[in-house]
Amino acid sequence: MEITGFFTAILIGLVIGALGRLVVPGRQRIPFLLTILIGIVAAILGTLVAALLGVDDTAGIDWIELFIQVAFAAIGVSIVAGTYGRRR
């Protein structure tokens, strides 16, 4: 992954976190900034996995990469919401 891809993944991560939160059913009692952080991590991981699978650079919109990123965000939001909710 090039440095531009890394920064793009961070910017996309802001949106990915929100999408991941929308995908998870129910109410998540976690701060929005934590959701953004999860989205950034999910975007980076999704980009890395897409690169490993060879689907990171396609013509047009990279739908497969986006799906992978949102899936990582949804998993991350679910895990954090489960552990964060029990802490309080």
From TrEMBL:
Chief place of localization: membrane
Keyword Isomerase: no
Key words of the record: Cell membrane, Membrane, Transmembrane, Transmembrane helix
Domain of life assignment: Bacteria
A Gene Ontology cellular-component term: plasma membrane
Location of the protein in the cell: Cell membrane
Protein's membrane topology: Multi-pass membrane protein
Family: Belongs to the UPF0410 family.
Protein name in the entry: GlsB/YeaQ/YmgE family stress response membrane protein
Native organism: Micromonospora endophytica
The organism's taxonomic lineage, starting at the top: Bacteria, Bacillati, Actinomycetota, Actinomycetes, Micromonosporales
